[in-house]
Amino acid sequence: MQDFSSLSDNDLIIEARNGNNTAFSNLFYRYDKKVFSIAAQYFQSSDDAKDVYQEVFIRVYKGLKKFEFRSEFSTWLFRVTTNVCLTHKAQYKKFQNVSISPDENDESPKIELKSSEENEPDNQLIISETKGKIQSAIDSLAPKQRMAFMLKHIHNYKIREIAKMMKCSEGTVKKYLFIATDKLRLKLKTI
Amino acid sequence: MEHKKFEEMLILYSWSELKKEERNEFERHMLGCDSCRNKLEELKKLHDLVTTNITEELDENALFESRQELLAEIRSLNRKKFQFSRIWEYLTTPTSGSLRFAYSLTSVVILFAVGYFMLFKSTDRKGQVTNDIAKVESSITNLEFINSDFEKGEVEIVYDQITPVKVKGNVNDAEIQKVLAQSLIDNENPGVRLKTVSAILSEKGTRTSNMFKEALIKAMMYDDNPGVRKEAMNALCNLQFDDQIRDAMIHVLQNDKNSGLRIQAINCLDVKNDLQKITDPNTINVLKKKMEEDENSYIKLRAKTILTKLES
User: Fold this and answer.
1) How far apart are CA A97 and CA A70, in angstroms?
2) Which residue in the set A111, A112, A188 is minimally distant from B46, CB to CB?
3) Using one digit for the tens of pLDDT, what is the confidence trace for B108-153?
4) CB contact under 8 A, B59 and A155
């Protein structure tokens, strides 16, 4: 065991390939918060995020021997993450076209949201209603549009980074984002 | 047509995705275009609406559980891999007379070559360490302690690393430390991980090595066995208290579902009585949160006591 913090990702990969699990754990501690966060935001459920987390890192662990150092490790890892998110069957929440009219919007979002105004009961109700509408509008997007939108607006990735993560062209990402933006603009007009 | 081009640029502009020249071009256009200015305003509102209502807050408890589950899964995979290699070895061992003879002859030649190579290359071997384990820290499996005297800091261990390896030495020896530190994180058997903590505790040096400290911190935070986490915490409580240990204790206090371990963590923070070291904003915030929200009333009380001490 050595001071792994000073090692580059590639050095850790080489160590991990030789069976050094401590190197692998150091490697995943570098990025696992982001992986978890992407999954949790996408599914709005910590339970689904936990499933995705396991799936992603086990895939990466098993696939480490085939990693060819042609791209950054993080690019590969986040590509696996988006892929697993897009193919994972959500257990706790189905993503389908959800109406955002108030009477049909019974499913409250599971994401934990904070605001300084949350202590005031009236405001809290309005905030919670607004959040519900926004979440439903986002849920109504097609999976790839939703993923691109979340990566752009919540995680602040650049289009070229999203393209690498989603393994598609920048033009395709733009298309997803334009459609998602248009849909949301229409659905959230009243807020 | 010209205006349509700017409409596409408008969205990219709102995401700061335009190149400098394009940005300048768009800004010049916008000066004379009310429609684009209004749409830009609308897009900014949409972005603000989404980002202020859907924050990127991490569920630390769920992350903590995920890490534990992943480490357990990796251990299980390694165990399966090792069992498979044993079966493979058994299956590929020749049974017929002529084959056995051919294999034996080849093995003797290879062993002779390896022995010859090692004899002339390993001139700087260290004291009591009977095997060159400087490079074997990877893929160590099935570690076991035999004839160890933790009181004296003497350990004798056997483990598998392609072939079985037996090592005898003192716990202060750097090479022994490498194997033990990795065993604490990787070994699939919680009993062995517990013994490893005992072995680490027998280190008689003036200061516990960073290697051990880091392994203990990882075990305390992420081991799936509460007994191992507890022993690792006991060991850390006896070390010289520093920011790294403080942050690890705070992590346990915040995330561990086992209330016994949370109690032990808060006790460690208090008993250390080095209040100067726990005045950072993060620690104070966690203690305040614990004082108000922890499900265990003892932890609430303890957090309150520490905060009162810090205020006075």
Assistant:
1) 39
2) A188
3) 778 777 776 665 554 443 333 334 434 444 566 777 777 677 777 7
4) no
Residue type, B170: N
A-chain residues within 8 Å CB-CB of B54? 41, 111, 113, 131, 134-135, 138, 154
Could you tell me how many CB contacts below 8 A there are between chain A and chain B?
134
Q: Rounded to whole angstroms, how far apart are CA atoms B259 and B298?
A: 10
**Contacts (Cβ under 8 Å, ≥6 apart) of B266:** B249, B253, B290, B299, B302, B303, B306
CA distance B196 to B192: 6
Nearest CB partner across the interface for A50, out of B11, B58, B66 = B66
Residues 56-75 of A with CB under 8 A from B: 57-58, 61-62
Beta-strand pair B154-161/B141-145: antiparallel
Give contacts of B138 with chain A, Cβ < 8 Å.
15, 18-20, 23
Cα–Cα distance, B146 to B155 (Å, whole number): 8
Cα atoms in the Cβ-side hemisphere of radius 13 Å centred on A39 = 34
pLDDT-based confidence at A180, cuts 50/70/90?
Answer: very high
Label residue A168 by pLDDT band (50, 70, 90): very high
The rounded distance, in Å, linking the Cα atoms of B169 and B174 is: 10
For B92, the enclosing helix (H) or strand (E) is: helix B60-92
The ipTM is 0.78
Q: Which two tokens stand for residue B174?
A: 């750097």
pTM beyond 0.90: the answer is: no
